Amino acid sequence: MNTGKISGNVLKRSVLRQLQAEREEIRNGAGIGEDCAVFSFPDSLTVSCMQEAPVRMPPDFQGLYPSDLPALPLSWLILKCANNLAAAGAEPVAVLVTLLLPEAVEEGALKAWMAEADSQCRRLGMAVAGGQSRVTKAVSCPVAVLSGLGKLPCGREDSLLTHGAHTAAPGQDVVLSKWIGLEGTALLAQRYREGLLERYPAYLVEEAAGFGRYLSVLPEAAAAIKSGACALHDASEGGIFAALWELAEAAGVGLTIDLKKLPLKQATVEICEYCGANPYQLLSGGCLVMTAQDGPGLAAALKAEGIHAAVVGKVTDTKKRILLNQEEVRYMDRPGRDELYRVFEKG
After folding, report:
1. How many domains does the chain have?
2. Does residue 238 lie in a domain region?
3. Can you name the residues that pair with 55 across neighbouring β-strands?
4. What is the mean pLDDT of the chain?
5. Which H or E run includes 324?
6. Which of 116, 144, 161 is the last residue of a domain?
7. Is the distance from CB of 272 to CB of 279 less than 8 angstroms?
8. Is 330 in contact with 322 (CB distance < 8 Å)?
């Protein structure tokens, strides 16, 4: 199998169909488009999610992992956990951090990672609640596995279950926050800075490299729930096309999306052209996909909070996922491998 997310068919065939055990405490479990599990206990609901990725070495410890891996700062992975929890309607509370380290890693790197994790948690109002750090010959580069935990008080069960990706329904508008491809653009701009500076103005490259400041979806998730959004799903690996497909697949609905309305930064366009990447299939953390009965009203509410938003299409009562590009009509493909992997591997 290729690196990156496994395909939807493999997920259904070799993962989800093997999971038959059930517990009554699990209100919402594993599934396509479901980034969080929901557990119901006597006094509250606990929400959990998971992230894993090769982690970028702190600045003083670079060079120990293969250069073709799209390694991420540990703080980004913690933010991804927080985003998944917020998109489920939960308050991010804690994260469990497991680090699998090759023998070449020294203690100074471990110390720097945990300081980074604590700093990010404090910014997000979370805490590192535990985990494990292990040196093993099984990995050739540092790998982090994170489990995020959030909470939802009793009495708000319907709120959380209403805002899961699986509750998109025909007739609702599809709204996106901010812009697509932000996360992938930032990583590409940082990785290929020197080559980009030979072609583009420095301000454009620096702007793109700083797109990490947009990656939290906590503000728009809170505003969307308050404004009556019906379903939320944060875009990530596989880009906006994968996020839209997952939302539709989870709810068993169709979509009609206007390609020209998908919000895209000019810096993303330029850097994707340089790298030969498709911006619609590029890592899109920071973009929240929402559905609502009144899409323009939701977009206006987000803009009032200083959050860019756009109505990009409709949820339909068929299983067809349609892309409109002026007079051209085509169907969405099943989510493929994120463009970031392909670009990093070709160098």
Report:
1. 2
2. yes
3. 72
4. 85
5. strand 321-325
6. 161
7. yes
8. yes
Same domain, 147 and 179: no
Q: Choose the final residue of a domain: 111, 141, 161.
A: 161
What is the reported pTM? 0.83
Q: Are residues 35 and 147 in the same domain?
A: yes
Residue 95 domain-assigned (yes or no): yes
Query: Strands, DSSP E only, in 136-183?
Result: 143-153, 173-177
**Among 59-68, 145-154, 165-174, 231-240, the least confident range:** 59-68
pLDDT band at 44 (very low <50, low <70, confident <90, very high): low
pLDDT, tens digit, for every residue of 127-170?
888 788 888 888 888 888 888 888 876 655 555 555 666 689 99
Q: 236 with 112, same domain?
A: no
Q: Which helix (H) or strand (E) covers residue 256, if one does?
A: strand 254-258
Name the β-bridge partners of 223. none
Examine the domain organization and report whether 241 and 296 are in the same domain. Answer: yes
Identify the band that residue 60 occupies on the pLDDT scale cut at 50, 70 and 90: very low
Identity of residue 333 = D
